[in-house]
Design brief:
By secondary structure, the protein is mostly helical. It is built from 6 helices and 2 strands. 65% of the residues lie in helices and 2% in strands.
Length: 219
């Protein structure tokens, strides 16, 4: 599946990060708009890779692993660049910090739940959060560039960033609550026999092996 279009789009999202980083170091308003174009193209691949994977039945384990990783790498990189170059500053840094912390939290929860073979479904509110967040970052990349003087682009980006931060707190709490529900569950392991609780005063015993192929169970 490495050569499939969905995987190529996912890796293109990661490959866009060095290009975006370089454009931040180029002076001039033109570079900001080029960076915006690169960012929008990378953001669109987030939708296209999933769409083509489902339409062409090219969904794979590798895609499920790298798709959320690519999203988080892109978002985290842009936020760090915006803060480093002063396009996100003051109290707005707190909103950016909330978003970054939530990304780490969700990644940790997904890794924990993967051991339990439990899923962490994406809620509708989380999808709205992602959309607002991606739009906010696009506005902030352009910032106060000269051609946008007639439109409060920076202010719009800041409002959207805080809106995304509020939704981030709500969805982050929902995901944390869902993860804590599975806290007492044991990881699913291969090649081991589950332990059957024994009556008081008796040693623990492993569950009986399932009948081999062609055999029937007598219980």
């Amino acid at each position: 599946m490495l050569g499939s279009l969905p995987m190529a789009l996912t890796f293109a999202r990661i490959a866009a990060i060095p290009l975006l980083t370089g454009l931040f170091y180029v002076d001039g308003d033109g570079a900001r708009f080029v960076a915006l174009a690169v960012y929008v193209a990378a953001a669109v691949t987030d939708y296209l890779d999933g769409y083509f994977a489902r339409a062409w039945k090219q969904q794979s384990k590798l895609g499920r692993i790298f798709d959320p990783i690519a999203d988080k790498l892109l978002v985290a990189s842009v936020i760090l660049l915006l803060v480093a170059f002063g396009r996100v500053s003051g109290l707005d840094v707190l909103a950016a910090l909330v978003i970054l912390c939530r990304e780490v939290l969700v990644s940790g929860l997904r890794e924990f739940l993967a051991e339990l073979r439990a899923k962490l479904p994406v809620s509708r509110l989380a999808k709205w959060k992602t959309g607002i967040q991606m739009t906010a970052l696009g506005f902030l990349i352009v910032g106060d560039a000269e051609p946008t003087a007639f439109l409060p682009v920076l202010a719009i980006g800041e409002v959207l960033l805080w809106s995304a931060a509020v939704l981030t707190l709500i969805t982050g709490y929902d995901y944390l609550a869902e993860g804590l529900r599975h806290l007492d569950e044991r990881p699913v392991t291969h090649g081991t026999r589950p332990v059957v609780p024994a009556p008081p005063g008796q040693p623990q015993a492993a569950a009986p092996k399932p009948p081999a192929a062609g055999q029937t169970s007598t219980t």
